[in-house]
Every structure is written in structure tokens, then in C-alpha cells.
Specification:
The structure is a single chain. This protein is an alpha/beta fold and 235 residues long. The protein has 3 helices and 14 strands. The strands form 2 sheets. Strands 1-3-5-7-9-11-13 form a 7-stranded parallel beta sheet, with no helix packed on it. The longest helix has 14 residues. The two termini are 36 Å apart. The mean pLDDT is 90.
């Protein structure tokens, strides 16, 4: 399979796991499904993902970003026919002075389509994480369902997190929601862990692993080890 262009059709189900990401073009059609597992450790700064999902087809994207670099990631997913479904789950860690921007958008071009997105991030040192993108339900797309969630923990005073979910709704008979939370590291959690004998760095590590490591359970064992090592190195 050519991983630059991934096409799944004819009632097939595919699982693809990549740990060196560049630009991807995806099509899922004809009652087919694709589970796409992306683990980013490279220094590719500009990454794009474009997808089209057809009738009664499903795309699930699981994206673990632990690259030690700036990232400018842009994704557009078009839900083109009834029954098209996309689920998106991202976890990212930014440290040093890196700036990471994730722009993820879904276009509900017809009705009875579903797009669900969850983004989780940790920003430390003087780094920056930005989650943005637009879920657009076009006119006539009745009974479309779209949802965005974004949560960012900011560890240090010079770090920044921005969550800017956008909903553009041109139809009434739909379900649409979004939520965004950006906050400082919980001092009560830190106090509790340090009162049990952990240093500040050890306490931060425990919190970060608890927040970001669960995504690794979706990957092969070799990728899981890479994710854990990447988190430890970044902390």
C-alpha cells in the first residue's frame, strides 16, 4: 500500500500504523473502514492530511505527536455521503520553545454524517500548542452530528495553550457542540504527589503520563515504548 495515498473500498477494513508522517491523501468508500494510527517523532514541520469519506464508511484517526520540533499540521476531512463517519483523537506534548499548531476541520457535505474530535495537549517550558479548526455543517445536511473537544494543560508560566474550536452551522436539524479547556497544572495534584515523596519533576512526569500515555495503548508495543521514552526525554 502506498502510504502517500491510502484508498479503502469494496467493503474492506484496513488498519495502518505509521511513525514517520508526511502528507497523506485518504479515501474511504463503499461501506469500508480505515483505522489510521499516526505516531509522530520526526522533524517534519509541515504535515497535511486530506480525507474523503463515502457512503456508510468510517475513518478513525489516532494521532500521537511527540516530535521535538515545530509542527504545522493541517487536516480537512470531507464527509461526502450519508453514513460517513470520522472519529479523531490527538495527544501532543510540546516543550522547549517549540510551537505546534493543529488545524483540523470537518465538512459535513450531506446529512446523516458524524464527526467526533478529541484533542489533548501538554505545553511546558516556553512552548506553545494551538488547537483550531472548523466543523462545518452545510445547508441541507440534516441530522448531521459534529462535536469538538480540546483540553490543554500548561505547565510553566512562559508556556501557552490555545484552543479555538469553530462551528459553522447552516442547517437546523443537527447536533453540534464544542468544548475547550486550557488551564495551569493543578497545584492540588502536585501537592498530593510531592507529599508522597515525589520530586517536582517526578510529579510532573506522573501527571503527564496519566494525561497523554493512554493514547499509546492503541499502538504496537514498539511504538508504545517510543512514546514513553519521548515523554520522559521531553520532561
Amino acid at each position: 500500500m502506498d502510504y502517500k495515498n491510502i484508498i479503502v473500498s469494496n467493503h474492506k477494513s484496513e488498519l495502518v500504523e505509521l511513525d514517520d508522517i508526511s502528507s497523506l491523501n485518504i479515501e474511504v468508500n463503499d461501506s469500508s473502514s480505515l483505522v489510521l494510527k499516526l505516531a509522530n517523532f520526526s522533524k517534519n514541520k509541515d504535515i497535511s492530511l486530506n480525507a474523503k469519506i463515502g457512503k456508510d464508511s468510517r475513518l478513525a484517526v489516532i494521532f500521537a505527536d511527540f516530535a521535538q520540533s515545530d509542527i504545522n499540521f493541517k487536516s480537512v476531512v470531507d464527509l461526502t455521503e450519508k453514513g460517513a463517519n470520522c472519529s479523531w483523537h490527538l495527544a501532543s506534548l510540546s516543550n522547549s520553545s517549540f510551537k505546534k499548531k493543529f488545524d483540523v476541520s470537518f465538512n459535513h457535505l450531506v446529512g446523516e454524517t458524524t464527526a467526533l474530535m478529541d484533542n489533548y495537549g501538554v505545553a511546558k517550558d516556553s512552548s506553545n500548542i494551538i488547537f483550531t479548526g472548523c466543523n462545518h455543517i452545510f445547508k441541507g445536511s440534516k441530522k448531521a452530528i459534529t462535536k469538538q473537544n480540546a483540553k490543554i494543560i500548561v505547565f510553566d508560566k512562559d508556556a501557552n495553550g490555545t484552543a479555538s474550536p469553530i462551528l459553522k452551522i447552516d442547517e437546523n436539524d443537527v447536533q453540534a457542540s464544542h468544548g475547550a479547556v486550557v488551564g495551569q497544572l493543578n497545584s492540588d495534584h502536585m501537592f498530593y504527589l510531592m507529599s508522597r515523596g515525589l520530586s517536582q519533576n517526578e510529579a510532573r512526569m506522573v501527571i503527564t503520563l496519566g494525561y497523554l500515555k493512554p493514547i499509546s495503548e492503541n499502538f504496537s508495543k514498539s511504538i508504545q515504548e517510543k512514546i514513553e521514552n519521548a515523554i520522559k526525554e521531553a520532561m
